[in-house]
Specification:
Number of strands: 11
Number of helices: 0
Shape: globular
């Protein structure tokens, strides 16, 4: 059973930065497609960024392109989300997710972390 544990959330002022980390255990991390999702109050969960293991393809939501960067360290079983130029609309619970089947980057995730809160004040 794969377990995902996120960390790095917190309160930051608009324009600031945070780096989220997600440590995976219980599986072959290097074979997983890893994604970051977020859910703001009253809204549906949405994909933010993802990286596919097989060809290192990446996905970014239009709203975060140029500000967020996803990266992974297979030796540490960890995926990161570097978030720069944060805005109040980035406030949400951020979830790490993993899948090992399928090429889609925004759907089909099987394993989920517990989430970490990111709050951006104006």
């Amino acid at each position: 059973q794969v377990q995902l544990v996120e960390s790095g959330g917190g309160l930051v002022q608009a324009g600031g930065s945070l780096r989220l980390s997600c440590v995976a255990s219980g599986g072959t991390f290097s074979s997983y497609t890893m994604g970051w999702f977020r859910q703001a109050p009253g809204k549906e969960r949405e994909p933010v960024a993802a990286t596919r293991w097989s060809d290192s393809s990446t996905y970014y939501a239009d709203s975060v392109k140029g500000r967020f960067t996803i990266s992974r360290d297979n030796a540490k079983n960890t995926v990161y989300l570097q978030m720069n130029s944060l805005q109040p609309e980035d406030t949400a619970v951020y979830y790490c997710a993993a899948k090992f089947r399928g090429l889609a980057l925004t759907t089909g995730y099987v394993y989920w972390g517990q989430g970490t809160q990111v709050t951006v004040s104006s």
